[in-house]
C-alpha cells in the first residue's frame, strides 16, 4: 500500500507541475500515452497495447491529443497501411515539463535518504518493477 501511495503522490505532483507549466488541458493518462509516443512514435494499436485499452479508446485519445495540438499523425515509415502517432513540438514541450516536475518532486525524497538507502531502494524497485510498463492503472 505504501508503494501505491508513493506512486500516486508522484503522479499527482508531476500532474501539478505540468499544469503549472501551462499545460492545463491534459490528464495524467495523457502523460502515460506521451511516454509511448516519445521517440519514434507509435501506431494506435501499439498505443492501445501500451495503455492496455481498446483500439477504439486509444483512437479517441489520439484524436483528442491531435485536436489539442500535442500529437500528429504521419505516414508509417515501413507500413503504407498504418499511420504513426508522434508528439508535436507542443507535446515534446509538455514532456519536458513533466520531466522537470518529476525531478523537482524527487529531489526532496532523494535528499532525505543516505546513499546506501538510495542504492537499496533502487535495487529493491528494480526487482519489483516490470521494465517498460509505465502506464496508468485504470
TrEMBL record:
Residues 1-130 form the HTH marR-type domain. GO terms for biological process: response to stress. The keyword NADP does not apply. It comes from the Bacteria. Keywords: DNA-binding. This is DNA-binding MarR family transcriptional regulator. It comes from Actinoplanes italicus. Transmembrane segments: none annotated. One of its GO terms (molecular function) is DNA binding. Pfam families: MarR_2.
Amino acid at each position: 500500500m505504501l508503494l501505491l501511495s508513493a506512486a500516486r503522490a508522484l503522479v499527482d505532483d508531476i500532474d501539478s507541475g505540468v499544469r503549472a507549466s501551462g499545460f492545463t488541458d491534459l490528464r495524467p493518462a495523457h502523460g502515460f500515452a506521451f511516454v509511448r509516443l516519445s521517440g519514434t512514435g507509435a501506431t494506435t494499436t501499439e498505443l492501445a497495447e501500451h495503455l492496455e485499452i481498446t483500439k477504439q479508446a486509444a483512437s479517441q485519445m489520439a484524436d483528442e491529443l491531435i485536436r489539442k495540438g500535442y500529437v500528429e499523425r504521419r505516414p508509417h515509415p515501413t507500413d503504407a497501411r498504418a499511420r504513426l502517432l508522434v508528439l508535436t513540438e507542443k507535446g515534446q514541450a509538455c514532456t519536458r515539463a513533466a520531466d522537470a516536475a518529476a525531478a523537482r518532486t524527487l529531489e526532496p525524497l532523494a535528499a532525505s535518504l543516505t546513499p546506501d538507502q538510495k542504492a537499496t531502494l533502487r535495487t529493491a524497485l528494480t526487482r519489483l518493477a516490470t521494465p517498460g510498463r509505465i502506464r496508468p492503472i485504470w
